[in-house]
Amino acid sequence: MPEPGGHIRDRTSLDGKVAVVTGAARGMGAEQARSLAARGAAVLLADVDAGGGRALAAELEEYGAGTAFVPADVRDPAHWETIRETALDRFGGVHVLVNNAGVVGHRRIGRITRAEWQRVMDINLKGAFLGMKTLAPDIRDAGGGSIVNVSSAAGLDQHPDPSYTASKWGLRGLTKTAAQEFGPWRIRVNSIHPGYMDTPMNDFASPALRAAKVSLLPLGRPGEAWEAGELVAFLASDAAAFITGAEIAVDGGWTSGAQATEARRMR
Ligand SMILES: NC(=O)c1ccc[n+]([C@@H]2O[C@H](COP(=O)([O-])OP(=O)(O)OC[C@H]3O[C@@H](n4cnc5c(N)ncnc54)[C@H](O)[C@@H]3O)[C@@H](O)[C@H]2O)c1
Q: Does this entry carry the keyword Oxidoreductase (predicted)?
């Protein structure tokens, strides 16, 4: 019989876990790494931005569970092998993979080049595929764990950049396939769908565009990067033990009706 109150014990600790986060040098990836480290995980940071990645690794040392930075382009299978070897050599295994690295373009179907389309698809979709292909067997060997794929509200509705929309819908679907394949290995796989977040990715936006986006949000403000980080830490932990194959929005209500609101305004 469980102890009285036992059902509410804290299961969010990540003590003894090893997490890999891609695109970790800044923005949401950096906050995901902070949230994971704060709960006790050793965190391996991967990014093409070596300066930002090394600085964050130095900062995360204070949490005490261990951290490392690997310069890596998620499009390159050889870089994934380096990530894998570093995780095994330094920390003895992997339990959590966060496929967060992503880029966005700004041209619509009529103007996007094939090279621009391919770059976004390769980073946002193929990168996550390579990550799961490389690390899932190690997560299995560690006794199971959690994979979080960072899609977007654009993976639930749309974005003006067709490659961004397609890559994020693709990642949402790939998540379901992986949840089915890796469930028997005790690996949970979920996608998260951030909405309009205040990160360097949105620095291009004019004050007018930002205000227009925010006006469509029920909460009346953009998201902060840590708000996605906390969701990732929850999904990584045993508190989310029965959640797999799910798609979870962290979007201030954007996908609950912003598109409809926008469409009504345009009538
Ligand atoms: N900011 C938003 O509003 C928003 C909304 C929905 C989803 N997202 C998604 O969240 C994720 C993080 O976005 P962000 O806003 O923090 O972006 P960001 O631009 O602030 O950070 C992205 C990070 O990914 C790294 N990166 C880019 N290409 C890479 C590659 N080939 N290999 C390894 N690392 C690479 C960058 O160097 C950077 O550190 C992305 O997948 C993005 O598509 C962002």
A: yes
Backbone phi, psi, residue 239, to 5°: -65, -20
Distances (CA, A) of 198 to 41, 67, 212, 214, 224: 25, 26, 14, 11, 6
- Spell out the residues 6+ positions from residue 3 whose beta carbon is closer than 8 angstroms to its own: none
Alpha carbon of 83 to ligand 1 centroid (Å):
18
Taking the centre of ligand 1 as the mean of its atom positions, its distance from the CA of residue 147, in whole angstroms, is: 17
Tell me if residue 21 falls in helix, strand or coil.
Answer: strand
Tens digit of each residue's pLDDT (9 = 90 or more) over 50-93? 999 999 999 999 999 999 999 999 999 999 999 999 999 999 99
Average pLDDT for 4-26: 90
Spatial distance between the Cα atoms of 37 and 97, rounded to a whole number of angstroms:
14
Residue 75 Cβ inside 6 Å of ligand 1? The answer reads yes
CA 24 to ligand 1 center in whole angstroms: 8
Ligand 1 site, residue 143, Cβ cutoff 6 A: no
Structure tokens at 129: 């595929």
Model confidence at 2, pLDDT cuts 50, 70, 90, reads: low
Atom number in ligand 1 closest to CA 24: 39
In the chain, the amino acid numbered 118 is Q
Atom of ligand 1 nearest to the CA of 201: 19
Ligand 1 pocket member 100 (CB < 6 A): yes
For ligand 1, is residue 55 a contact (CB within 6 Å)? no
Q: Average pLDDT of 124-143?
A: 99
> Is the CB of 49 inside a 6 Å radius of any atom of ligand 1?
yes
**DSSP per position, 82-97:** HHHHHIIIIIS---EE
